[in-house]
Amino acid sequence: MSDPIEMKLAAMGLELPKSSPSRANFLPFKQAGKLIFLAGQICEWEGKPQVFGQVQPDYDLAAAKKAAEMCALNLLFNIRAAAGSLSQVASVVRLGGFVAAPPGFGEGPAIVDGASELFIALYGDAGRHARTAVCVSSLPANALVEVDAIVELR
């Protein structure tokens, strides 16, 4: 492994999944010029959902953030597939985060921070991004979190 971003990831005790299969009839990413538009990724590992259902009243914020981080790892897998190297990212432009939650739950953005914090840790200022984080009634495969992204390549 010679990619500096993947070495940073490993130093954080994290790794990319070996696969990140699409769940339906769509592309995992689409490149337009220097931008890569990444399809939403749920909190699954190598195609197997890991964290399910809506946020519960006694939820663990740290565990929920790890679910969002898992989404980001799947996004990084697809960035590498699109660009050939995670070091080709010039800027993380935007993240969109979705959290399955009951009406009135207002802490969805704190959960999506799990994805944002990983991109910032890996890319520094280039990882800082515009973001939307919303709560929804349900997500594919009954997942807790889904995150999509737009990144700019060098």
Automatic annotation (TrEMBL):
Domain Endoribonuclease L-PSP/chorismate mutase-like: from-to ranges: 6-152
Pfam families according to UniProt: YjgF_endoribonc
UniProt xrefs under InterPro entries: Endoribo_LPSP/chorism_mut-like, RutC-like_sf
Protein's name according to its UniProt entry: RidA family protein
